């Protein structure tokens, strides 16, 4: 990995290490379908957790969605997170590999989309520049084939939220992102195809439960639907040679 890229990640993590943003960041973004199941409409300006939403003032002449009075169609701020409409890298299903030069970093191949996504850095900070793009969270590409896979807390996973990425020169629909390795702790990923054996064989881009409600709340502000993958069924126990059931 280039030294400048490592410096960017280190600087990014150091800036928010003791802040509330970092605490929220570490909890992950929306990897749990239960956030949606909490359900129900909430009053304009209040998110699903009862936290008041501060919306960004709309530039003159720009149309405003009806859900959150005064909301911009391109950015919404809610409870420490920014929902932005712009190109971004999405790593929710990305398999990753541990860097050979820095064991705290995972290299992940992610897709590049243009639309609404959420993170804990501002929309201006996340604006693409040249081949640089930032990985954030959304459910923009979720299909019925997706599943939210729970992995045990003794396997590492990659936190790709607000991490720097570089567009693929040959295929700009893909990007390589440098994500932070989380060595232990339970996680959820949209990758793995509900195969629990991949939790230990692959370092997945994932998020820690229970996630946060900012994404669904902010998407309501811009009248956008949110569809989370169904939770994967638990692993089916199989009998061990001694007759004691073990997880398969």
Folded structure, characterized:
The chain has one domain. The protein is built from 5 helices and 14 strands. It has helices spanning 3-15, 20-26, 34-37, 198-201, 214-221, and strands at 75-78, 81-90, 95-98, 105-119, 132-136, 147-151, 157-159, 163-167, 174-182, 187-189, 203-204, 230-231, 237-239, 245-247. The strands form 3 sheets. The protein has a 5-stranded mixed barrel with strand order 2-4-9-8-5. A 3-stranded mixed sheet has the order 10-6-12, with no helix packed on it. Strands 13-14 form a two-stranded antiparallel ribbon. The radius of gyration is 18 Å and the shape is globular. It starts with a helix and ends with a strand. 38% of the residues are buried. Mean pLDDT is 76; it is low at 1-66 and 237-248.
Residue ranges: pLDDT <50 for 5 or more in a row? 1-66, 237-248
Counted up, domains total 1
Helix content: 10-25%
Radius of gyration over alpha carbons?
18 Å
Strand order of the largest sheet: 2-4-9-8-5
What is the general shape? globular
Quantity of strands, as a count: 14
Head-to-tail CA distance between termini: 36 Å
Number of discrete helical segments: 5
Judged by helices, strands and strand pairing, the structural class is alpha+beta
Average pLDDT rating:
76
In what range is the share of β-strand residues?
Answer: 25-35%
Order of helices and strands: HHHEEEEEEEEEEHEHEEE
The biggest beta sheet is recorded as:
5 strands, mixed, barrel
């Amino acid at each position: 990995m280039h030294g400048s890229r490592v410096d960017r990640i280190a600087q990014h993590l150091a800036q928010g290490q003791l802040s509330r943003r970092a605490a929220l960041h570490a909890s992950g973004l929306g990897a749990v379908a239960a956030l949606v199941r909490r359900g129900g409409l909430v009053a304009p300006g209040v998110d699903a957790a009862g936290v008041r939403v501060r919306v960004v003032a709309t530039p003159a002449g720009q149309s405003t969605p009806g859900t959150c009075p005064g909301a911009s169609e391109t950015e919404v701020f809610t409870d420490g997170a920014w929902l932005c409409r712009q190109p971004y890298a999405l790593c929710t299903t990305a398999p990753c590999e541990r860097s050979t030069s820095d064991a705290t970093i995972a290299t992940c191949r992610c897709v590049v989309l243009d639309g609404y996504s959420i993170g804990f850095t501002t929309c201006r900070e996340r604006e693409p520049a040249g081949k640089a793009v930032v990985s954030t969270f959304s459910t923009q590409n979720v299909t019925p084939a997706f599943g939210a896979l729970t992995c045990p807390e003794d396997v590492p996973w990659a936190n790709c939220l607000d991490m720097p990425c570089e567009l693929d020169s040959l295929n700009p629909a893909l990007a390589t992102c440098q994500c932070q390795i989380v060595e232990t702790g339970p996680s959820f990923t949209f990758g793995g195809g509900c195969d629990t054996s991949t939790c230990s064989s692959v370092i997945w881009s994932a998020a820690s439960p229970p996630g946060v409600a900012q994404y669904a709340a902010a998407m309501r502000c811009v009248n956008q639907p949110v569809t989370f993958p169904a939770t994967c069924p638990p692993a089916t126990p199989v009998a061990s040679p001694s007759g004691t059931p073990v997880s398969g």
